[in-house]
Design goal:
Length: 84
């Protein structure tokens, strides 16, 4: 993921051999720890045929309710992705 500082979990960043492959017809849940990072980020594979198959998109990181931010809450948030 571009721009994400992975802490304590960079071993599962998707590099071949760092974790077991996800088998067909199964799921995998990634758990990430983000510290002091809020905003919209982008994920994409480094293998072009996966990217062509639609394996890319936004990841929105919101602040926790217990942590205030020094600006008003946005009226709305939209993610616009354009791919070729």
């Amino acid at each position: 993921m571009n721009g994400i500082q992975q802490r304590l979990n960079s071993w599962q960043d998707g590099v071949s051999g760092t974790n077991c492959p996800i088998q067909p017809a199964t799921n995998w849940t990634y758990n990430f720890s983000f510290k002091d990072q809020i905003g919209t980020f982008f994920y994409f594979p480094s293998i072009n045929f996966l990217k062509a198959g639609g394996a890319f998109g936004p990841i929105r990181v919101n602040n926790r309710a217990v942590i205030s931010v020094p600006f008003p809450k946005p009226e709305a948030e939209l993610d616009l992705l354009i791919g070729d």
